[in-house]
Design brief:
Blueprint lengths: L2 H20 L19 H6 L41
């Protein structure tokens, strides 16, 4: 075996150990996962509405919730007209 074949074999063994540790089946080169991702149910999307207060009225203090790269969230009101976000 050549040096590159040995390195490739060690790399493949390393990936197989990592896949076995996570409980996932080992992949063959250029093969997709065994199970394709499943789309969420349409019911869940319909049930996600504007947050409501205890009396059934929509909450007035809903925030934008936009996240920046560092994980901070925008504290402006939902649907604000300002182009910039206020992160905290």
């Amino acid at each position: 075996m050549s040096k590159t074949d040995e390195l490739r074999a060690m790399r493949d063994a390393k990936y197989a150990r990592a896949r076995a540790a996570t409980g996932r089946a080992p992949l063959t080169p250029n093969a997709p996962d065994a199970k394709p991702p499943v789309a969420p149910a349409a019911k869940a999307a319909k049930s996600a509405k504007t947050p409501a207060a205890a009396d059934g009225a929509p909450a007035d203090d809903a925030v934008c919730g936009h996240r920046n790269m560092s994980g901070r969230t925008c504290t402006r009101e939902q649907g604000h007209a300002a182009k910039s976000h206020r992160y905290s």
